[in-house]
Amino acid sequence: MNVSKTRFSGIVVELKGPETAGSVGAKPAAHREKTPDPLDPLVAAPGFHRLLVENDRVRVLDVQVAPGQFEPMHRHRQSVIVVLQGGKARFQTARWLSAGTRLQWSAHRGQKRSPAGLLDGSGDPLGEQHRKPHHPSNPRGSEGERERESMTNRQLEGKVALITGAGRGIGRAIALGYAKEGASIAAASRTREELDSVVTEVKAFGGQAVAFPADLTDANVPARLVAAVVETLGGLDILVNNAGIGTAQSPRPVKEFDDDYWNLTLQLNLTAPYLLSKAVLPIFLEKRRGRIINIASVAGKIGLVHGAAYSASKHGLLGLTRALATEVASSGITVNAICPGPVRSAMNDQRIRHDAQRLGITLQELESRITPIGRRLEPEEIVPMAVLLAGEGSSGITGQAFNICGGLAMF
């Protein structure tokens, strides 16, 4: 039988061959190496899930499967077993385990290993005595089991997401939405107080988030930001380019437009996403998996009165989305854009006040006819699409620009 070993922090785990459907177990303590080398945590054989045991997670580093070795994972229940300090920790999932996935596990103390079950290749990697009895009166198991099952169904479990402009508006909503789906959040923006608020809210419901204050108008910042995220959170799987500047601060016709504001708008709305995407590509290309989601605008598809810089920058962002998607489509990386319409935010509040004054109508009248659905959108309405595009189910979607605009732009 082919066996490979993973060593990390004194724990030795074995990855069984295809005859045990990818079972993973830990060697008894007596067989552990006394002084494992933390600089050489991984030795893996072809055809196995390569796992790295971290403090409280088992992280899937890579999936190397030869044709015919494994059936689709939804037909099996993959088991990850770690024996630690006399107890057993087990995690089961029916999902296919892709590169970058991090699996939660919980310890169950005082359980004995089956003398012929965990690692003997018997075809029953858990052993019959470790199977939970069926209770007809409680078909879904205990509350703890249901909670763990719910965690396995979270779409972004174990992923690390960098979200720019995460302090408020759409960025904040996406950060909270991703955290609820299991992602670790790297929240970036210029305002530390807003970031701290997001981090506090994420931690309040048990998520993980770290604040990264960053001024993306500085061309040197994007690469440093990506490096800091990887060093702090151990990796990066999703980039959401959301930070941007609108038209509210300087809404003027082109003949009167402020050149400095034009340059600032393109720097933040287009150049920063380009530089951030460029910085994450080596990471994504190495593991052949990654998601880049650009928050564009319907103004990237139509013109915008008194907003030439904004409209031009968002048109450019869609061009970047499609060009990059074409370049990396064969490498397991998807690049897509979301094009919101008018979304309720401090920035948009200023813009619609300008438009109401320009059109000579009340703010209430403008809001009632601003979209065919008769209102502005809320930031939370952008989240479901952002989650979809970040998840495993979107691997066939790339180079697209999805309108979420209340019917304002139907193309």
- Taking all Cα atoms into account, the compactness measure Rg is 25 Å
Helix tally equals: 9
Overall body shape:
globular
Q: Would you report the number of β strands?
A: 16
| SSE succession | EEEEEEEEEHEHEHEHEHEHEHHHE
Strand order, main sheet: write it out. Answer: 12-11-10-13-14-15-16
For the record, what CATH class of the largest domain applies?
Alpha Beta
- CATH homologous superfamily of the largest domain, by name? NAD(P)-binding Rossmann-like Domain
Measured by DSSP, the beta-strand proportion falls in 15-25%
Average predicted confidence as pLDDT:
74
The CATH topology assignment of the largest domain is Rossmann fold
CATH architecture of the largest domain: 3-Layer(aba) Sandwich
Percent in helix: 25-40%
List low-confidence stretches: 1-141
> How many distinct folded domains?
2
Distance, first to last CA: 55 Å
Main beta sheet strand tally, sense and closure: 7 strands, parallel
Oligomeric state of the chains present here = single chain
Instruction: Classify the secondary structure makeup into a structural class.
Output: alpha/beta
